[in-house]
What we know:
The structure holds 2 protein chains of 2 kinds. By secondary structure, chain A is an all-alpha fold. Chain A has one domain (92-361). Chain A has helices at 4-13, 18-55, 71-80, 92-109, 127-135, 138-148, 152-183, 188-194, 199-202, 204-217, 229-232, 242-267, 278-299, 305-334, 339-358. In chain A, helix 10 runs antiparallel to helix 14 (305-334). The longest helix of chain A is centred in the N-terminal third of the chain and has 38 residues, at 18-55. By secondary structure, chain B is of the alpha+beta class. Chain B has 2 domains: 24-38 and 151-181, no CATH class; 46-147, 2-Layer Sandwich (Alpha-Beta Plaits), CATH 3.30.70. Chain B is built from 5 helices and 5 strands. A 3-stranded antiparallel sheet of chain B has the order 2-3-5. A two-stranded antiparallel ribbon of chain B has the order 1-4. The chains are: A mainly alpha, B alpha+beta. The A-B interface holds A 50, 53-59, 62-63, 67, 295-296, 298-300, 354-355, 357-359, 361-362 and B 3-7, 10, 13-14, 16-18, 20-21, 23-27, 29, 166, 168-171.
Amino acid sequence: MMTLLEEFRAWLSAALPEWAAYLIAGIVGIFVVLGFVLTLVIVFIWYERRLLGRFQIRLGPNRLGPEGIFQPIATALKILIKEDVVPEKADRVVHWLAPIVVFVPVLMVFAVIPLSQGAILADLNVGVLYLVAVGSVSAVGIYMAGWGSNNKYALIAAMRTVAQIVSYELPVVLSLLGVVLMVGSLSMTKTVEAQVVPFIVMQPLGFLIFFLGALAEMNRCPFDLLEADSEIVAGYHTEYSGMKFAMFYLGEYGHALAYACIITTLFLGGWRGPVLPPFLWFLIKVVAVFSLIVWLRATLPRLRVDQLMAFAWKGLFPMALINIFVVAVEMLWLVDISRWLVVATNIVLAVVLILAWSRLFVLGRGRVEV
Amino acid sequence: MKFERYGIGVLKGMAVTFRHLFRPPITVQYPEEKLVLSRRLRGCELVWYPEKCTGCATCAKNCPQGNIEIVTHVGNQNNYMVDKFEVDTGRCMFCGLCVESCPYEALAMGLCYEGAKYRRRDLVMAKEALAISDSRKPSAYARPTIEASLPKQSLLVYWDRTDGGQKLSLFPLSKKRGRGV
């Protein structure tokens, strides 16, 4: 099955030499995906501000353009014309490079996300591996930002980020493995095609672990310790302004969009859905996941550092291990009997494990005065 | 064996924020929509009654700024005719001493709170601008007769969003308004 890009290249190579067709098709594909991503990021910035406003009984930005849709553009213009301040004792090269290292991997993630049937930039047969590898690079960028700024708050934030992302990478990858086991392939397209029943139903626990882990990976509330304004000013981008800050800002929302896309692809059945065209289904699911993220942000307060670590290592990590083990056993013996048997087992497993682990998170165990 | 920390608190919290989604926003989009103010408000404006004023200039004498300028001439019924009654509201601090001192209740504090002008010279208000009109109504400040005629009303302000304000089509606003802030 050829992707749209390959078809385009085949069509081009009828008229052009092979290398020119390859180059032109690649560039066009990249620009289409980039356009899609950047447009959606800008829309999401507006959408989050409006939705957060409604959650907090406010209106949110509604002045510029219909429903305030041009507000992010105005914000971008404002940021662009700001002075680019670099601290005197900063490590200039690292300070300059950090926003790029944060922003570029986020864009690279979208290369393997199938936006619709065949609409994928590179249908890698190791798509999930690529996601995991590229998705965690931005932690390096954040650490570079913190280190290069020569600012104690930025460095604290960077330390926190590395600890957080390294800790949450494990449950995320392990819960991804559950999906990979069920698909039998690392390809994103195959993952979507395998979801006759979306994997959120097939393994609710895996979805929960992945979702919470992804929240931590994209540094969203309630895991946004790296920019805890009440403690460490603005975190790793304390010393950034102008275009560099805009890169971090875009990278943050791009990350949220990327994880919304990944969750959609891996757990919600990607472009699959009745009646509506596939691309629309994909968009609907992405917006739904993003709304859930905003909803959580509107609800939950920030975690403490030790709580964050405990949640990853004592909560999600063992649960993910048990989950992947159970899924493996199911794929060996149970799935041939009935798919719905697997669903039932996994729902029971999720309930039992969550209830069992809830005993771990009890405040002040043994202490009477709490 | 009691289970309590399996995420039920998070779900409850999310239910609360979800309910907030359907509450009307409390934001007042000021220039387009305004709160309905209590009639007992003591605003920052002067209201002048041309027919009550005798031109005695007690107000001008009592003004700590020397801010009120009155020019009169003698009319044919042996009374003062006010030629000029001018207040520089840019210098006025709205202390209300002129209102309190007026023996004929020809001055009152108004209800308005929007005194900003684009030009400094617009702040100097002549007698036509100061005179009582439909848009320039007296408040009950230092005027017991007016105070007695006002409805029993607390100082609460009320929503009125029947007109004004940007219309929201995406997240429609409920027309039902709560009572004040």
